[in-house]
Amino acid sequence: xxxxxxxxxxxxxxxxxxxxxxxxxxxxxxxxxxxxxxxxxxxxxxxxxxxxxxxxxxxxxxxxxxxxxxxxxxxxxxxxxxxxxxxxxxxxxxxxxxxxxxxxxxxxxxxxxxxxxxxxxxxxxxxxxxxxxxxxxxxxxxxxxxxxxxxxxxxxxxxxxxxxxxxxxxxxxxxxxxxxxxxxxxxxxxxxxxxxxxxxxxxxxxxxxxxxxxxxxxxxxxxxxxxxxxxxxxxxxxxxxxxxxxxxxxxxxxxxxxxxxxxxxxxxxxxxxxxxxxxxxxxxxxxxxxxxxxxxxxxxxxxxxxxxxxxxxxxxxxxxxxx
Length: 323
Description:
Pfam families: HMGL-like (PF00682). The chain is about 40% helix and about 15% strand. By secondary structure, the chain is an alpha/beta fold.
């Protein structure tokens, strides 16, 4: 928090009293880095995020290493995270694409997983080398086995608002695939604005259509990218609809290796600043989180793109200094 005690807390009516931040920096953020971050640095990053008060931290991905080489060390990383339970009730979800990925995750003790689908055929082909329906068929045994083992399952749905090849994505198409993911048994659905083209009215329309299709708001999370500077305004629209789970990435890291126009995720610090000002509880220490992003920026050799990190960081701080 800034020395002036800002932001001033001014609650707005009709918003959740608490928001759970689903931190994706260690997975969705680092998977898009050109240089591979050392395993020990990733582990320390996740530890620092937990100390800052984040309780859902997506740790890594069990996708085949050749597809996401930056996360090829999942087997080495996950065992290093056992001590995180000492800093609180922290969940460490991991991404799995198929039963092979599930086997790898369960063998290491993962208790929360995510599958990742697409609302568009083009992205499904690029990201999973399958059609949308073939992808859903691939997820079916993954979700069934996870649920049988009492493992929490999240369903990511990419390209919910626009696709760089197909353009605008009809709401009805998104609803069909979202409903199918939930019918498989997913506990939670994350709506991905993968290329950052959503606007608040579009967000509200999609959430309303999902409710009408039987997907309850408490089961929905939102995942916005800030390509056109709309991530916070879209988040506010989702909060006004009753959504209380928001994905964000410490320092604004991220993108998507299979969608070149996907820029960084909504920065966790920017989100916390807004939520603090609205009087919404997150359990996150903004000063600790900002220090964590500055520390990681030093390892990445560049400043954080988060506006809040930049505003709260002394000018003397250097992204090129590695601690």
